[in-house]
Amino acid sequence: QPDCSPCPPGCSCPGLDSSCTVNCSRAGLQLAPGLMELPSNTTVLDLSYNGIVSLDENLLDNLTSLEKLYLQGNNISILYKEIFAGRRYLSEIDISNNQISTLEDGIFADLFNLSKINLSFNEF
């Protein structure tokens, strides 16, 4: 079993093979976990259906193997361009059902493996 610590409060962090899933869905979070609260071998980060309004631009900096990011059903109004920088393994992003009104040019430029993205039900 991989070491899936630290695990953010209110979340579960099951491990499989060498990777970790961080499941914070419906955990009642008002803030996204901090950079130091996430296991570095996280491949799936689920922050869906919380009350998160913003994400730190360096939130994913340590998560070099991140493949799936679920942010749907929050109150996020802005995504900083830097948030996805260098996340070349990220293949699936769901940021539907938020309050995002604009996306910066080039925000997805580094996402060479992106195959699925859901931006529906935002303020575009």
Layout of SSEs?
Layout: E1 15-16, E2 19-23, E3 42-46, E4 68-70, E5 92-94, E6 116-118
Parallel strand pairs: 2-3, 3-4, 4-5, 5-6
Antiparallel strand pairs: 1-2
Walk me through the structure.
The chain is mainly beta and 124 residues long. The protein is 0% helix and 17% strand. Strands 1-2-3-4-5-6 form a 6-stranded mixed beta sheet, with no helix packed on it. A hairpin with a 2-residue loop joins β1 and β2. The model has no long low-confidence stretch (mean pLDDT 95).
Number of strands: 6
Percent helix among the residues? under 10%
> How are the strands ordered across the major sheet?
1-2-3-4-5-6
Beta-sheet strand percentage?
15-25%
Give unreliable regions as ranges: none
Query: Structural class of the helices, strands and pairings?
Result: mainly beta
Biggest pleated-sheet summary: 6 strands, mixed
What value does the Rg take, in angstroms?
13 Å
Mean pLDDT, all residues: 95
The number of helical segments is 0
Principal-axis shape equals globular
Distance between the termini: 42 Å
The helix/strand order is EEEEEE
Features:
mainly beta; 0% helix; 124 residues
How would you concisely characterize the structure shown here?
0% of the residues lie in helices and 17% in strands. It is built from no helices and 6 strands. The chain has a 6-stranded mixed beta sheet, with no helix packed on it.
